[in-house]
């Protein structure tokens, strides 16, 4: 169950500290048959609670998911028309998915608005919306800045909902959305620093002078991995990002340090080296040498098989396309059960790549012995001859990482082939602000025990993370849809524009306000120039996760709160 963001003494002092006149917290959690919700405001005395029939909610969320990108069982290539002269395409599930999204509820403003209304009526009671509007009237906007913020802690079932797009159901403004009434931000799960004052994050003012780090469209080293390149950006976009990286380098990156990579091979060790900086300590006092990190590329979900009776272990990973020799706790072997006896010593495996997973970012090398044990169990199932323990361990390591054993980050001391246990936050200390523009990078809250890239990055030191709720469609999808349906194509790579907007928001004084302003601008474009490219199927996926200081309170503040 998601942990409610309960702040002792939650009131005007908290809202002012977060930069708003008033804050409303809306928190949900799912039971067996109902989804339960509770709201409270910083002005006190007006909290409320309600419940939603989970079956009804899941039915409506199924309609939402059918409108979202991501290949589904319903996607069939049977209805894809033949290409006209001058065009080529191969009917497949991916192409069927593009047509489903373009022709679906998020492909037309009227149907999108209607779906938004139905979601709003089920998820947001009238009393709640009325209270929000009262607060907005009491604390009116200042220019383009909202003075009221809604912080939402989604239940697992509703984590996919684009909350800011839900209609406010005001008769005077029938298509008004939540993000046009207030700023909307997502509440991530509680992290260790919420209960450990020694892990306090610095302020943005303390670190904004530090250089950024860019990981843009990382590609595999084909000579090592033999994995084909799958880019999310085009050549023109790569030129733009190289200019951004070069501009950032000239603004203060230390000599001998890169400001990032564009369409280049990148390893987890490269990332560690540049996030840590020179002479960084190997304990919890380490701080990131960067002000912000932007990753634009692929994210994938891996399910590792656990012992019988346990559900698969699900983790999300950044696809850096590294060779499998780099140590990681997500094992290709463990996620793909293999029948029969163990391979012979010295036998080679097919070239594979390993992703940098949320588990890696959290655990670092702390789970090394457990991981080796899992590998031995995989290579020698109970029905096989047990063999000698040391031989089994060595065989498992060779099969998983190669004949030379695993490659560890430079900051990790290795003795007799065994690494010292170091947490991920020490190996990859995260900057205060992180953006992950990739498919479904922010799905942590969909699990009953929330965990994923966002949580791992927050545990690593970040305070703000901009991620996505669902799969994203790149520019190639817009071109295909325009060709098949004979609609217009603007020539603008909207995926690239989304990544630029996230990078710009990461540099602003107030990230939450900047990201909300961006989505309001995109909503205005969607209304005035609706198309596949301007649809909220892309920009509506953005989720702004903010983990401010949430405790523990010092004795004086705690006493004053009562």
Protein architecture, described:
By secondary structure, the chain is an alpha/beta fold. It contains 21 helices and 16 strands. It has a six-stranded mixed sheet, with helices on both faces. It has a five-stranded mixed sheet with strand order 3-2-1-4-5. Strands 9-10-11 form a three-stranded antiparallel sheet. The two termini are 28 Å apart. Mean pLDDT is 85; it is low at 1-9, 333-343, 380-385 and 558-562.
Distance between the termini: 28 Å
Rg value: 24 Å
Q: Number of DSSP helices?
A: 21
Low-confidence runs of at least 5 consecutive residues: 1-9, 333-343, 380-385, 558-562
Helix content, binned percent: 25-40%
What is the number of beta strands? Answer: 16
Q: How big a fraction of the residues is strand?
A: 15-25%
Topology, please?
Blueprint: H1 12-17, E1 22-30, E2 34-41, E3 48-53, H2 54-67, H3 93-103, H4 109-123, H5 126-138, E4 148-153, H6 178-181, E5 183-186, H7 204-207, E6 213-216, H8 222-225, H9 235-249, E7 260-262, H10 268-276, E8 292-296, E9 299-304, E10 313-323, H11 332-335, E11 353-357, H12 358-363, H13 368-379, H14 389-401, E12 414-415, E13 418-419, H15 424-427, E14 433-437, H16 453-459, E15 464-468, H17 475-485, H18 494-507, H19 511-528, H20 536-539, E16 542-546, H21 555-560
Parallel strand pairs: 1-4, 4-5, 6-7, 6-8, 8-14, 14-15
Antiparallel strand pairs: 1-2, 2-3, 9-10, 10-11, 12-13, 15-16
Helix pairs in contact: 2-4, 3-17, 13-14, 18-19
């Amino acid at each position: 169950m998601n942990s409610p963001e309960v702040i002792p003494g939650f009131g005007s002092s908290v809202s002012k500290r977060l930069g708003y006149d008033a804050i409303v917290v809306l928190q949900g959690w799912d039971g067996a048959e109902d989804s339960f919700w509770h709201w409270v405001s910083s002005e006190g005395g007006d909290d409320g609670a309600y419940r939603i029939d989970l079956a009804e909610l899941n039915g409506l969320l199924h309609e939402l998911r059918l409108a979202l990108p991501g290949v589904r069982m319903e996607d069939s290539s049977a209805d894809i028309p033949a290409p006209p002269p001058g065009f080529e395409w191969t009917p497949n599930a991916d192409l069927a998915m593009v047509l489903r999204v373009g022709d679906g509820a998020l492909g037309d403003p009227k149907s999108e608005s209607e779906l938004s209304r139905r979601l709003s009526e089920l998820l947001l009671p009238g009393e709640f919306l009325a209270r929000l509007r009262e607060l907005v009237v009491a604390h009116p906007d200042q220019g383009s800045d909202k003075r009221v913020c809604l912080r939402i802690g989604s239940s697992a079932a509703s984590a996919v909902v684009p909350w800011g797009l839900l209609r406010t159901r005001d008769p005077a403004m029938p298509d008004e959305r939540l993000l046009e009434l207030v700023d909307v931000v997502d509440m991530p799960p509680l992290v260790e620093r919420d209960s450990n004052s020694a892990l306090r994050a610095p302020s943005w003012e303390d670190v904004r002078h530090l250089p950024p780090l860019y990981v843009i469209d990382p590609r595999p080293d084909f000579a090592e991995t033999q994995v084909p390149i799958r880019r999310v950006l085009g050549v023109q976009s790569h030129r733009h990002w190289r200019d951004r990286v070069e501009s950032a380098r000239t603004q203060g990156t230390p000599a001998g340090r890169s400001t990032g990579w564009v369409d280049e091979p990148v390893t987890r060790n490269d990332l560690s080296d540049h996030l840590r900086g020179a002479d960084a300590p190997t304990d919890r006092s380490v701080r990131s040498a960067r002000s912000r990190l932007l990753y634009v590329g692929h994210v994938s979900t891996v399910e590792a098989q656990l012992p019988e009776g346990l559900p698969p272990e699900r983790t999300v990973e950044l696809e850096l396309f590294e060779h499998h020799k780099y140590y990681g706790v997500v094992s290709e072997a463990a996620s793909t059960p293999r029948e029969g006896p163990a391979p012979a010593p010295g036998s080679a495996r097919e070239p594979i790549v390993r992703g940098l997973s949320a588990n890696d970012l959290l655990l670092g090398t702390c789970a090394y012995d457990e991981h080796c044990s899992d590998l031995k169990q995989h290579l020698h199932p109970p029905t096989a001859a047990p063999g000698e323990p040391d031989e089994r361990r060595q065989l498992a390591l060779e099969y998983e990482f190669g004949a030379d054993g695993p490659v560890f980050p430079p900051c990790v001391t290795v003795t007799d082939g065994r690494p010292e246990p170091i947490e991920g936050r020490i190996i990859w200390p995260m900057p205060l602000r992180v953006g992950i523009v990739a498919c479904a990078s922010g799905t942590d809250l969909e699990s009953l025990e929330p965990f994923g890239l966002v949580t791992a990055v927050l545990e690593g030191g970040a305070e703000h993370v901009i991620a996505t709720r669902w799969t994203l469609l790149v520019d190639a999808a817009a071109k295909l849809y325009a060709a098949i349906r004979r609609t217009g194509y603007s020539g603008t790579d909207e995926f690239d524009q989304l990544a630029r907007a996230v990078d710009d928001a990461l540099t602003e004084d107030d990230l939450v306000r900047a990201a909300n302003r961006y989505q309001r601008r995109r909503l205005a474009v969607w209304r005035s120039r609706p198309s596949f490219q301007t649809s909220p199927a892309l920009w509506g996926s953005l989720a702004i996760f903010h983990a401010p200081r949430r405790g523990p309170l010092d004795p004086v503040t705690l006493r004053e709160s009562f």
